[in-house]
Amino acid sequence: MAEPSTVAEANPSSGGKVKNWLKTAIGTLAGLFSGAVLMYLTPLLDRVVKPAKPVANFGYQADGLTVTFHNRSSGGSAGWWDFGDGSPLEPVTPQQEILTHTYARPGEYTVRLTLRNLIGEEHERTVVVRLEPPRIDPPSIAAFDIVPVSPGSYAPATFRIVSKVQNAQLYIWDLGDGRPLEISADKDGGQERLVTFERPGAYVVRLAAVNGTQAAVKSDIVQVNVPPVGTVTAVLSVTDEATRVETITVAEKFTAAFPVSSRETVHRIDKQLPARPGFEITDVGVKLSGGVGQRLQGRKEMVIDPAAVGARGVRELRLQLASDRRSVRLTGELVREGGKGSALPTLSLPVELVQQRRTPASRAGVPVTATLSVPGSAVLTMPPLPSDWTEPRRQARLELREGDRVVWQESQLTRGALLTLQNKRCIVSATAAGSQVRVDLVELPPGLIPTAN
After folding, report:
1. Chain mean position to CA 51
2. Would you give the DSSP letter of residue 380?
3. How far, rounded to the nearest angstrom, does the alpha carbon of residue 43 sit from its chain's CA centroid?
4. How confident is the model at residue 204 (pLDDT cuts 50, 70, 90)?
5. What CA–CA distances, in Å, run from 21 to 26, 88, 96, 138, 352?
């Protein structure tokens, strides 16, 4: 009889044990394998897929109340600027390296730059910006001279006051004869003027130049004498109308940045800067590398070499002045160079806009006096015009006085008028030559009958 097979006699439950053991072994191996894969794959994913952590960083330069911020950050895809003065938050453009902000007043401001990457990681940097009040130079009066217009300084006497003033916002005049103080913000109000004193006496004339809370004062004494017996006073009153031309130079800046979301390789630049209300742009200046300047100088447009202004990734820059001179336009192109991850080009172009405003101007009659004998002559100088007046239209009126009594007057300069002065028959003539008027009193020979005054 055959012996039973060893395999056949094995316990049927042993097959299940083997299967369980195999499952456990395979599971263990799979766990070990997946752990090894994750151990080596995770750093790889961090390097390849996960974006870099954002690092917010910036510096700044202050020019008065205008601050230029230099963005030196990395790793951020979005964010915002908080300038610390209550103004709205400004979004961050990662490729915009330069940003300007103007504060309303001096003080300390905490500026915060916050960045965030694509998976929400944030980083911020805060800097305290200290803005000092602008330095105000003290005013000075380098010269203060008072010169009589005609010899003798006889009442009514006119004096020319010539001063040289620097760093002044206001001019305050005290003429010392009971007139109200004169306050002027016009720069020509403190440089040269004519003043007439009606009565004999000594007068202290003061000029105060004011800048902020600081002031400089100069004074001098003028002596007005009693006119000699037998003289008359010629009084020339000049009324002026003209066009005042106010010229200012304003620093501005054209800025442009290649859009981060753009897939194009070229971005068109088309920017405009307006003139101030009421002004026209007469010239535009661009500062080039090495301190050299380029200006329109009467042209309507000019081409700018990007390399000359330190611009990279920029081409075909052109400035154009509008036909109405109310704005200036900058056109050109920003060109993406390199691959998708390369830095995007930006442009920051400082310019100077020379602007003018033309407005009507007028001035009431300014009297100029001179004393002359009968017969005799005198030269009167017309009041100087302000330096910013053009196209003047001057109307002169001449009169002759004996004491306080007007004995003759004419609304226009005359070449020959008959009158009687101090029982003498005379012809009066007034002739203009440039800024001066010569007055002549010529006594008539006996026998001629003058007209009535």
Report:
1. 45
2. E
3. 56
4. very high
5. 9, 68, 64, 98, 86
CA dihedral 412, 416, 420, 426 (to 10 degrees): 140
φ/ψ (deg, to 5) at 450 = -75, 160
261 by DSSP, 3-state: which? Answer: coil
For residue 288, give the nearest of 235, 352, 374, 383 by alpha carbon.
352
Q: What is the arithmetic mean of pLDDT over 148-175?
A: 91
Mean pLDDT, all residues of the chain:
84
Tell me how far apart the alpha carbons of residues 421 and 415 are, in angstroms, rounded to a whole number.
Answer: 17
Q: Which residue has the higher pLDDT, 26 or 406?
A: 406
What's the CA gap between 113 and 67, in Å, rounded? 15
Amino acid letter, 253: K
Closest CA to 322 of 298, 300, 304: 300
- Structure tokens belonging to residue 388: 């910013």
Across 342-404, the runs of DSSP E, i.e. the strands, are 346-373, 376-381, 389-402
Report residue 220 as tokens.
């001098």
The pTM of this model reads 0.61
The predicted pLDDT at position 7 comes to 39
DSSP reduced 3-state for 205: strand
